[in-house]
Amino acid sequence: MELGQAIRTRHSVRAYLDDDVPEDVLRDVIDVARMAPSSSNTQPWHVAVVSGEARRRLEAELVAEVTEGVKPYPHFQPGGVGLFGEYKDRRRECGLGYYDALGIGRDDVDARQRIALKNWQFFGAPQVLFLSMPAAFGQVNGLDVGLFFQSLMLLLHERGIGCIPQGALAQFPGPVKRIAAIPEGNEVLCGLSFGYPDLDADINTLRMTRRPVDDVVSFTR
Ligand SMILES: Cc1cc2nc3c(=O)[nH]c(=O)nc-3n(C[C@H](O)[C@H](O)[C@H](O)COP(=O)(O)O)c2cc1C
Q1: Is 38 helix (H, G, I), strand (E, B) or coil?
Q2: Which atom of ligand 1 is the closest one to the Cα of 10?
Q3: Total structural domains in the chain?
Q4: Which residues line ligand 1 (CB under 6 A)?
Q5: CATH of residue 149
Q6: Which residue has a Cα nearest atom 30 of ligand 1?
Q7: What are the CB-based long-range contacts (under 8 Å, 24+) for 188-191?
Q8: pLDDT in tens, 192-211
Q9: Residue 219: predicted pLDDT
């Protein structure tokens, strides 16, 4: 797949088939993604993959925390902090587009909560991975991990593997650190549910819009 085509056709996948992605495929993909650039070549990323019985236990523990009303306790500042104006509008549009695609009314709070819970059920994906970096690291190191992350998602996409990045999976790090093999001293930045996409699922036809190119660039001579 040509790079531009891969970038244009990747999208978040929210319904999956049951089959695991073989470990050697994941190793190959991560072997390429690790070539991402990083500040002073520090390569602060770590990937912890959770499958099978461990994945089932993790889902149960995360869903228990969420439904018991535990307040989120992410280590790193989550994505929604500091949003204003047009950024808040886009977040709202993103949520509404998602609920509309599922046929959920905008005021149907129960259905929206049920759908939100799918985050901690990994959207039915058979596997999930967690990106972590040392706890003391800051924004630029997070950018390094982000570069690795996009490469990883595109490489999965190239092989017909779908995925969805999930900040929600950094909100309750207790179960994640108990079950996934997160290196000592690291904290979770983001999760990624992944697997082979269910191509019959309506939700997988959802495509989010983007700002026009002239809105995101300025040229000065
Ligand atoms: C860092 C990051 C965190 C995200 N967290 C979530 C999440 O917790 N739950 C969710 O459903 N989608 C999440 N997303 C997916 C975004 O909503 C999605 O990427 C965006 O709407 C653009 O859609 P696309 O990925 O289909 O192009 C996240 C994306 C990124 C990059």
Answers
A1: coil
A2: 27
A3: 1
A4: 11-12, 79, 94, 119, 164-168, 190, 208
A5: 3.40.109.10
A6: 165
A7: 188/74, 188/75, 188/76, 188/130, 188/131, 188/132, 189/76, 189/131, 189/132, 189/133, 189/142, 189/145, 190/130, 190/131, 190/145, 190/149, 190/165, 190/166, 191/128, 191/129, 191/130, 191/131, 191/165, 191/166
A8: 999 999 999 999 999 999 99
A9: 98
pLDDT in tens, 161-202: 999 999 999 999 999 999 999 999 999 999 999 999 999 999
Closest ligand 1 atom to the C-alpha of 208?
Answer: 23
Range of the domain at 186: 3-78+121-206
Give the number of the atom of ligand 1 that is nearest the alpha carbon of residue 169: 8
Ligand 1 centroid, distance to 35 Cα (angstroms): 23
Predicted structure pTM score: 0.97
Tell the residue nearest (CA) to atom 4 of ligand 1.
166
Cα(163) to ligand 1 centroid in Å equals 10
- Average pLDDT of the chain? 97
Domain for residue 16, yes or no? yes
Instruction: Confirm whether 108 is domain-assigned.
Output: no
Provide the pLDDT for residue 16.
98
Asked which of 97-101, 132-136, 148-152 is least confident by mean pLDDT, the reply is 97-101
Measured by CA distance, the residue closest to atom 9 of ligand 1 is 166
